[in-house]
Amino acid sequence: MQTAAIRYELGDHHEFEFVEGTISHAIAPEIEPLVSKHEECFSYLDEKTASSCTAALDDLEDYIAAEGPFDAVMAFSQGAGLAAMLMVRKLQQEPMQQRLNPLFKCAIFFSGGFPGDPAALRKNELRPLSYDTDGQVIHVPTAHIWGANDQQYPTFGPVLSQLCKHETRTVFMHQGGHEIPGTSSKEAVTATVHAIRRTVAKAIPAQQKGFHHLEKCYA
């Protein structure tokens, strides 16, 4: 729903799969205009509980094994943090294999949340990854799109961006808040699509025409 304008501009040669959360959650302010007040919403995990984070990672990995492989992941807010955390976990578990054949060829992060350290989760501990401590932990091409006027989570986006390889990341900051650019800002949608296309171009051979995306878009 939130990515409809972007998906339209990207064209019909991409295939998208949508993954929903399973934990009942209040409607996030940024999607209130898009849904009925009676509609039930869900999150992917309880970020305050290590066991919930681990379960969400396991569920996502199982989904990818059953429904994938996927060329890319496109995710928003908490979903972006979860996707990034799984990418890091796979790299921690299989460093050589993930360098040669990563879980995703590239990632598109909207207002990306903080990924936790999967190694800490194995000890039933919570520790957010940070550039100062952990450096660049995601090495595939990435796009990072966030709002300059995000009052809800102002550090989402920049922190995750720093954790990704600087030479192959693309950053676009729009004038909105904690949201994915939509029909209300054609300029932001156009710039977002350009950022995504640049990222895809870095990740796949020019002769490959389509991409299979896994999309995790709810906060």
List keywords for this structure.
219 residues; two-stranded antiparallel sheet; 8 helices; six-stranded parallel sheet; 18% strand; alpha/beta
Structural features, described:
With 219 residues, the protein is of the alpha/beta class. It is built from eight helices and eight strands. Strands 1-8-4-5-6-7 form a six-stranded parallel beta sheet, sandwiched between helices. Helix 1 crosses helix 8.
Unreliable runs: none
Strand-pairing-aware structural class: alpha/beta
Q: Biggest β-sheet: count, sense, barrel?
A: 6 strands, parallel
Q: Determine the number of helices (DSSP H or I, runs of at least 4 residues).
A: 8
Beta-strand content: 15-25%
Mean model confidence by pLDDT: 87
Net shape: globular
Order of helices and strands: HEEEHEHHEHHEHEHE
- Please bin the fraction of helical residues: 25-40%
Radius of gyration: 16 Å
Give the termini distance in whole angstroms.
13 Å
What's the arrangement of strands in the largest beta sheet? Answer: 1-8-4-5-6-7
DSSP strand count: 8
Question: Could you outline the blueprint of secondary structure elements for this entry?
Answer:
Elements: H1 4-10, E1 14-18, E2 23-25, E3 41-43, H2 50-67, E4 72-76, H3 78-93, H4 95-100, E5 106-110, H5 118-121, H6 131-134, E6 142-147, H7 158-162, E7 169-174, H8 186-203, E8 211-216
Parallel strand pairs: 1-8, 4-5, 4-8, 5-6, 6-7
Antiparallel strand pairs: 2-3
Helix pairs in contact: 1-8, 2-3
